[in-house]
Design the sequence.
């Protein structure tokens, strides 16, 4: 019994030491976390300042780019079907144009992508058309405005189709004996009617929102890669179309126009005809 009491005394002493060490460790841990949080706050402040500086530089160079884009547009206007060719040569955007869309694109005189004055607040994409037999508008614009709560407000020109044309009736006049594809499902111009941006922030608990977003983002990247490789055929949605135009086609459309010229040149070479370019 004496031995048992001695063991109990030793165990109690050991537990007391462990408790003291635990309190000490907990105190050190709290201090370390507080210091770490201070450093993270400092880094966050620096990152915010860096972001502001980057935006200032981007806005400055947007102003510098504008007259250069204008000069580029003037030259493009002298090249027949430039934008139609560039669109059709793009591996993803080219899939969006129906035969009837291509007829409309022949009247496309210029394309403009413009950031908002405050770059982080959004951008707009404008298609300028010559007078045509399809709609009254000479300018079709779609605008994306990034809101503080993390959603995107989307607005677009409501196309004024001429009589017998338009989304409900098909883009061209009806011909007897021909079955038309549903224009509302296939046409690129349906994009201007798609102004709904679903807000899922309020529908998902904050604790799972970020992981879900990361998963969705990863899946979208993978699907976009497959789309470009044409392994699968997934229809692009509104924001994806806008991003492809803004970030890929608009900066250097000549890449896609030259793609056609390159293969046409090869074709002429193989047929022993001297290429014209």
Sequence:
């Amino acid at each position: 019994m004496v031995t048992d009491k001695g063991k109990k005394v030793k165990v109690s002493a050991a537990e007391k030491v462990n408790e003291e060490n635990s309190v000490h460790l907990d105190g050190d841990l709290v201090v370390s976390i507080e210091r770490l949080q201070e450093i993270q706050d400092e880094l966050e402040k620096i990152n915010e300042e860096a972001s502001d500086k980057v935006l200032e530089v981007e806005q400055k160079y947007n102003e510098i780019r504008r007259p250069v884009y204008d000069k580029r547009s003037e030259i493009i206007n002298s090249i027949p079907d430039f934008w139609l060719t560039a669109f059709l040569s793009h591996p993803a955007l080219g899939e969006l144009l129906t035969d009837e869309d291509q007829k409309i694109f022949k009247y496309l005189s210029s394309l403009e992508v413009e950031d908002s004055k405050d770059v982080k607040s959004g951008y707009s994409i404008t298609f300028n058309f010559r007078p045509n037999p399809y709609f009254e508008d000479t300018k079709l614009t779609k605008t994306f405005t990034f809101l503080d709560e993390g959603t995107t407000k989307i607005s677009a020109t409501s196309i004024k189709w001429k009589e017998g044309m338009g989304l409900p009736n098909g883009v061209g006049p009806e011909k007897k004996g021909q079955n038309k594809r549903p224009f509302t499902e296939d046409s690129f111009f349906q994009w201007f009617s798609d102004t709904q941006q679903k807000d899922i922030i309020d529908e998902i608990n904050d604790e799972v929102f970020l992981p879900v977003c990361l998963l969705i983002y990863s899946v979208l990247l993978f699907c976009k890669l497959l789309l470009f490789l044409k392994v699968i055929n997934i229809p692009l949605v509104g924001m994806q179309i806008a991003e492809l135009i803004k970030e890929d086609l608009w900066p250097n459309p000549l890449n896609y126009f030259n793609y056609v010229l390159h293969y046409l040149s090869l074709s002429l070479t193989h047929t022993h005809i001297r290429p014209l370019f």
In short: The radius of gyration is 30 Å. The longest strand covers residues 108-115. The CA atoms of residues 144 and 254 lie 25 Å apart.
